[in-house]
From TrEMBL:
UniProt superkingdom: Bacteria
Organism: Streptomyces aurantiacus
PANTHER family with a match to the protein in the record: TESTICULAR SOLUBLE ADENYLYL CYCLASE, TRANSCRIPTIONAL ACTIVATOR DOMAIN
Protein name per the record: Transcriptional regulator
SUPFAM superfamilies given in the database record: C-terminal effector domain of the bipartite response regulators (SSF46894), P-loop containing nucleoside triphosphate hydrolases (SSF52540)
Amino acid sequence: MVWSGVHRAAGPPMVGRHAERETIGRLLESVHDGFSGVLVLTGDAGVGKSRLLEYAAQSAQDLTVVRLVGVEAETRLGYGALHRLLRPYLGRLPALPQRQRDALNAAFGLTDAAPSDRHLVGLAALTLLSDAATAAPMLCLVDDVQWLDRESAETLAFVGRRLYADCLGLLFAGRDGTGDHDVFDALPRLGLEGLADGEARALLADGVTGHLDQAVAEQLVAGTGGNPLALLELAVNLGSEQLAGITPLPEPLPLNRQLEEHFRQTAALLPADTRTLLLLMATTPTDDRATLWRAAGALGLSIRSATPAVAAGILNRGTTVEFRHPLIRSAVHSAAPAEERRRIQAALAATSAPERSAWHLAEATDGPDDSVAAMLEAASELAQARGGHSEQALVLTRAAELTAHPGKRAERYLDAAAAHLASGNLPEVRTLLELTAPDLTGPAARVHATRLRASVEMFSARPREVPAMLLEAAADLGSTDPVARWDLLREATYAAIVGGRLITGTTTREVAKAAADGWRETASPAWSPDPLIAALARSIAYGYAAGAPALAAALARLRTADDLQEQGAFSVMVSIAGDELWDIEAKREILGKLVTADRGRGALYGLSMALLSLATVEIWDGRFAAAESCYTEADDYMAATGFRASGDFHKALLYAWTGREAELRAAIATMNTMAEQLGIGSTYRWSGQALSIFELGRGRYREALDALLAVFDHDPLALGDMNLAGMVEAGLRAGDRKAAAMAMERMEERAPLAGTPWALGLLARCRALTTDDDGAEQLYHESIAQLGKVPVAVELAWSRLLFGEWLRRRRRRADARVQLRAAYESFESWRATPFAERARVELLATGETARKRTVDTQFDLTPQELRVAIRAASGSTNTEIATQLFVTISTIEFHLSRVFRKLGITSRKQIGLKLSTTDSGD
């Protein structure tokens, strides 16, 4: 039930909980000051969570208080709880940006719009609540979060993670050990235990009307562990002689889990029609009073049936009939006999809306019933259309349970597993896959199950067994379904590239050959990932000469696409393909389109992956601050989607260029551990590249070469090309001409086939390094000219450094200074410390003093302030910036006010001028 600005009866005075009340007070103070606050209260049933929520409501003086209570019977209704919370504010929907408005309309079934990404629904809910709080600061109290449907829980957790300056407080409460608590893990949490002994005795004394023996009080406090609800129930229900110590206390005392049994026993003493009404109330959605009383009428019940329950303290007295405590609702529901539950469900089926009727009918059914199962399957399609994947999964699971034929039952279990996969509930996917295993018939069903198992492994970042698993499924399918077979081969190729040399049961080349041979060019949209995956497979299986033209064509095709769609970490494959061809322009353009598309759809996981790939583009162009911004934003979205932080291993390349050795080595250690534990062999290639760049900058050529040799012979695709120029340099400087020759041979083969300025510029540099005569000078000039055509500033500075070193060794100091000065100033401006120091030493050797730049602190802007400033400088409105960064307009306004103060400006037009002297790109 939702109340706005309405408080329930206060109940007995609160005893103790001083620290908890102070924490809640600070949250309310933050909301009053124009900011936001979030807190999750957890603990056993009856420990006082609901009482603290009531305290918060009483203390929220000038705030609009909005309440939501999770109900066990509603956990399957996707977005049901969220709809109840937001229903008073749906009149504000027209003011939302179009995509957000469509997302909420679809989620609530208000229009026929296609379902949106769940995080876009979250952004819409955030915007709606923030808009309402702007008019009147708000406190949302959400009790029994363990009974929220998963979609609503995820959305509210998302809102909690994105609040900042929104005049909005969120206070959640839920029992430990039940429900989807994991979705709230990233939010501030306060665990509640029983009251301290003195406070518990005081609470007990307040609840006892007669004499309370001190020894009895101590026994009750010890026996209940200070649980407030247990103490209050004992004060009311124990006899006066027991409380006075004249007769013994009952064993066991009704505490913790026994509290529900106590409430069950209390309810069992009520008249039959009252017990029926209580069960109906416990089963009906709390805000659907019309359905409740229609079903009550069908069962021959009236409002008078509630009177005994009010007298017994089961229901509250008031204008609305409601349970006195959420635990009583759960007790009534769980204690009811199965036959009585089915009778209630049958009455609800006859009186509910069509989309809910099928579920009630299923719950009223005892044993298999194919007609009801078919109705449920149809209802699951309605849930899917709203994006309620958890609801869809639960409905399909119930449909499978009612299905008589084993094969059909297995198919419905598989469909339910797929819905759980879409909701991110991997444990349930595994459980349902185990149920289906004995009854799978035919290759199509077996392939479906295999793809689900493979998806679970990939979502869990465990690619080791996936390629062999999918290859076997493709062989099982044969030529019966070419489309499904290609899907398997495409997914196997991606898993093989990620897994690298650590995959089992097959090899990367075997997988690639199967995919390359199985690919058939068909009419497909320009955004399709299929041609690119096929080209990558062809390059692995048949060599660079065979694959490079196909890769170039695939990238060119993607550059023409108006609207790209992230599919299976597609951005990672785009990044690898761009690196293999040294095509930085294609890589930047396609990844930029993916970022834009993912932002628009609210696809935060895909957006975070695309930003991680885009960060490498920024690094190669010397835009280290922009790369850092990409990494920070990606981490932010990872957290927003519920993924736990895995450390800074993805920043290894940035750490290498900036000389942050401790962070680099920690990142490499993490990557190598991930490789061994999870089978992600590709991380060896990333760590080898980063370490080699760091060591080359430090002039430790043997160490750099060792890092490169460790990955040179393994899976040349994916960073194979990117390491070649460094390997030539490291090999020559370390005196290992054989290693340099191996890298040079591959460079001579591949760079002309790629034909991009980046490739040709590196080829000219490598040729210059291996040339002993004066011909090297022209090759260095060629390298600098080619690299200057594309956004690879660090490579350009690197060639200038090598050219300057070459000139100095030939005693051409004046010419050397020109190149070394340009290299040094570039590296120093980017904070590329190892290479800046290398260039500085060389410059000193020419007789010129190199002055270090004054450290630029970016005006002390935080990463989020910098992102906001960049977008404001580009002309984006506050609404557009808020949508792009998945925060509220209030938060953007707050950050902009701090940007203005820190930069000492008064106009958005001045932001660009202030930032133009530093690397602040995004």
